[in-house]
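Example record

Each entry pairs one chain with its bound ligand, 26Q.
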Amino acid sequence: MTRSQRPGPNLQDPEKFAREFTEELRFGQGVDFVRASDTDLYMALARTVRQAMISRWIQTLDTQMARNAKVVVYLSAEYLLGRQLDNALLATNLQATARHALASLDLELDTLREFEVEPGLGNGGLGRLAACFLDSLATMAIPAVGYGIRYEYGIFQQQFNEEGRQVEVPDSWLRRGSPWEFPHPEMSVNVGFGGTVKHNGTERAVWTPDTNVVAVPYNYMVPGYRSDAVNTLRLWQAQAAENLDLNEFNSGDFQGAVRTQTEAESISKILYPEDSTPQGKRLRLQQQYFFVAASIHDFIHNVLPGDFDLRRLHERVVFQLNDTHPVIAIPELMRVLVDANGLGWDEAWEVTRKCFAYTCHTLLPEALEVWPVDLLEELLPRHMEIIYKINSRFLEDIADAFPGNDWRVRRMSIIEEHPVRAVRMAYLATVGSSKVNGVAELHSKLLRERVLPDFAELYPDRFTNVTNGVTPRRFLKLSNPELSALITYKIGNDWVTNLEELRELDQYADDPKFVATVGRIKHENKVRLAEVLKKRDGIVLNVDSMFDVMVKRLHEYKRQLLKLLHVVVLHQRIMDGESITPRTVIFGAKAAPGYVMAKEIIGLINSVAATIDADPRARGQLQVVFPPNYNVTLAESLIPAADLSEQISLAGKEASGTGNMKFALNGALTVGTLDGANVEIRELVGPENFFLFGMTEEEATGLRDAGYSPIWYYDNDPVLHRALEAISHGDYSGGQRFAYGHVVDSLLTDDPYMVLADFASYIEAQNEVEKVWADQGLWQKMVVHNIARSGFFSSDRSIQDYLDRIWHAPSVPVHK
Ligand code: 26Q
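Structure tokens for the complex follow.
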């Protein structure tokens, strides 16, 4: 028996579990049972569960190393993990044991789990996707490492002031320590910045940085669901290379001595809360290079065998670039191969291109990252040289492929000239990768046709699609235990790792008993959500109303304003004495702190909510709630309780969406446009089980090209007119006439996301929603079809697509 094969205590036995737990309390936390705080108890519980995964973790690494397996290296600046405890209990099959063990000590699992602070190391969809992918990779026993940044402060905590405006509070998620991380300072890596480059007439250059920052790795276990594999997520923390400058310190310049240190450590201090309009900030570029350089170094020196021939690197690794944030990895690998390891440029380039693949997550032109050449020259002078050389070789290729087409050469250059000289990171990613993918069919098509058409023409085989998915472990099994139990009762447990099996439920759509049970479970989830919101925010919900939910980052293209106009229309119907379908509209959204319009919209939603709340006529019919600080934990209670899922972005703007998938899987019906993955959801669940509205992408583009005039809709649609008037007159802002007038003005004058053009169609779709809701038999039948036909949207399927189309990395089963 080798060191790593020594079994831990058998924690499946509740008595042993309870014993380990009390030991962890004493020896891990240093307290005894009577004096333990709730946090102590949670920490000891987490450490006990951790024990159950450690030998599997070591075993996984040993097995993968011994097999010389190809490794998927996921490079992402964000991982939005959510709480860890429940997922670890599920993966290790310890849920019931832990519950019983704790009960024998007069403790409750449900109470203790609430003390976990979720690590919010991401903004939204892209970060959560990375977390779902890690879960699937481990579950499918694919050798994989996730690399990223251990931000000291994650996505800000959102509060609302008395006026309902967003206030950001720092997210100090590490305040009470995290029981899930394993720091390894002895494995630290140096990362250089600035300095000078020397050439000696060969392809090899010598870069001498003038600043060094230390990257300290923190490891996190990523347990597969009953696969016996536990993969690793490695997040880097920045530390100053020297503790304090002793000269400065001794000469009494204490501030100066500390400054150097503070500057280095600021690199991993905080997650940038922007998720759509990159600002080109120096610190952000430092973050990107910092984690990418440390990760490549770590992979080459600590994962590969010591004598590995880097000419064959692509046989052992694929670096998946989660958007352009880690794209500086391409010139970095070139530098490592050419300067540090003596490969020739051409062979290095061939290897590099084979090692990288790039996923694009956006369609918005303003969201495409560009980095000013000046900034790159200052921080990464050797990388800038390498980028120039990549570009000149690339432009020669184009000139060969399209002789005499100067304009095309300029269009496709990795360097843009205006407004300042800057590197187009999406172009660099495309040129330096073997595959480029979009995240839904429509998105991949628009990527080829609109965002990167010249590149798609030059490299048709490089472009592919991988439609996003979500992990059924967290977003069905854990978050919706009753529905999961019902499904398992009907079709067995295999759906958890083979979600297409949900199809077998389709036949029960006509079984009144099954349909009624699904309805009862939804109601119980609504009651549970009501309890959560009561306790969390003092919000009281009418659980007998329709729960109409729109949760996602706040952005104009997502069109929270369209939903809000519908709310105003409903309220005006009530004021006219009509009786409407009782509805609770639930919003959840954070706005980037610098995104003024998004913050205005948050203020307006809260203002409308308060106005309706104060109107006795609306009671029991219409309520708008906006619990602050929407995050993964809240999503887990909210999604299973939703009846209606709002996916109403302007067609052609949302790359995919992943919330849309979580809702459908949990038995909400979607009202949505033909955008992102909505298109595929609708096709799969059946058009008759989906509330479609709005223009297609072609129609929207056509209208824009023909000259879109929002005011026309205002002048010609009395319902729209009245709703907009009411808002600008202050009817929904305590009579303050101009409080939100400019939000309305922006719609009337500009309306870049065509809210007014889609308004009538949206209202019509919502009327249809009410009609179907009135026939609960029909509604629930549609719900069952949605659940049964959403199996495609498992992140396991996405990962299988990545494996087949891009990675080609075989699974390596791990045995205990
Ligand atoms: C870039 C540079 C500087 C500062 C910030 C950023 C930055 C950070 C985060 C840019 C973008 C993001 C996040 C983007 C994102 O979440 N996109 C979403 O990705 C999902 C997963 O593919 C899709 O489902 C969504 O449609 C897409 O909007």
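The first strand starts at residue 71 and ends at 75.
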